[in-house]
Design brief:
Number of strands: 11
Mean pLDDT: 84
Number of helices: 11
Length: 298
């Protein structure tokens, strides 16, 4: 598809982070969405899997759970940036709420991680919320009565008593079905999608394909990767190890371009990225379609 300037529109973009937290994924995704909208692209952000902490993110946790819902700040920001009528549950169909363990408690590899609940939302004939409740937490997190609000609206609740049961529930396919149904809902209403990964994971969903560009971000830098090479490297890495980190995939590749990002004050970040970085970045990603080999040799 060509736009009015004769450049190919971005339709599928993946934003990944090279840090477990505060890499800048959502900020970059928002700046990218804003720029694409200015180019006339009907785009929506999509974070297939998301998570937050009942301790560190209590404001948005309280806001959501008070409504019998569960979503995070990133889903709210992506929804607002996209200007979509779709709910936060469509933007992030799978959401995990974490507890913070006391320092005296350590998690063994054989134990269930210290999450409180997973909210999984499926969009088929009707919207259905499924809750995966962790019954193994060895401590109180102090807002049990607030989390109870979520169970008033969910269709099904699964209780996790050990790691094997968590794996068994994961194999039911609810997580995959939720992400796929949300993606269908988004693409019915919007022509383009900006995928945002979670934490420092290389692929937030194995169903991602036909990408136009991959953007990796860390404090101070944005890296542009050839999408086909990135997905091939991700597939290779998946065959080698179970946990797929973005850094491990990017280490196998040479970025087509590296963009230096100076620090900004919080209120300036999205606009300055759009003004100072995004125009240059998106120009590169648009023109890269004209000659991928040329950029690959830079």
């Amino acid at each position: 598809m060509k736009d009015c300037e004769g450049m190919m529109n971005l339709e599928r973009v993946l934003v990944i982070g090279l840090r477990e937290s505060d890499a800048g994924k959502t900020t970059l995704a928002r700046g990218l969405i804003d720029f694409m909208q200015q180019k006339g692209v009907d785009v929506c952000g999509f974070k297939p899997r998301a998570a937050n902490s009942i301790w560190y993110d209590y404001q948005v946790v309280y806001e959501a759970l008070s409504q019998g819902r569960l979503y995070g700040k990133d889903a709210k920001l992506l929804k607002k940036a996209s200007g979509t009528s779709l709910s936060e549950e469509v933007i992030s169909p799978v959401h995990r709420l974490w507890a913070v363990a006391p320092q005296s408690i350590r998690t063994e590899l054989s134990e269930v991680p210290h999450f409180i609940v997973d909210r999984i939302t499926l969009f088929d004939d009707q919207t259905r919320d499924i809750a995966i409740l962790n019954d193994t937490l060895p401590f109180e997190y102090g807002r049990e009565e607030l989390v109870e609000n979520l169970f008033e609206k969910v269709t099904s609740v699964y209780h996790v008593s050990d790691l094997e049961e968590l794996k068994r529930i994961s194999n039911y396919g609810h997580y995959e079905a939720a992400i796929r149904s949300a993606y269908r809902r988004i693409t019915r209403e919007h022509g383009a999608v900006v995928f945002e990964s979670y934490s420092d994971i290389a692929l937030p969903w194995q169903g991602i394909e036909n990408l136009d560009i991959v953007l990796a971000v860390e404090p101070g830098y944005i890296y542009i990767y050839d999408p086909d090479k990135y997905l091939s490297a991700a597939e290779l890495s998946t065959n080698i190890r179970n946990e797929l980190k973005a850094e491990g995939v990017c280490r196998l590749l040479k970025p087509m371009k590296t963009v230096r990002v100076p620090p900004f004050r919080p209120g300036q970040m999205v606009n300055r990225l759009q003004d100072k970085i995004a125009s240059k970045l998106i120009y590169l990603t648009y023109t890269v379609f004209q000659n991928l080999n040329t950029f690959s040799n830079i």
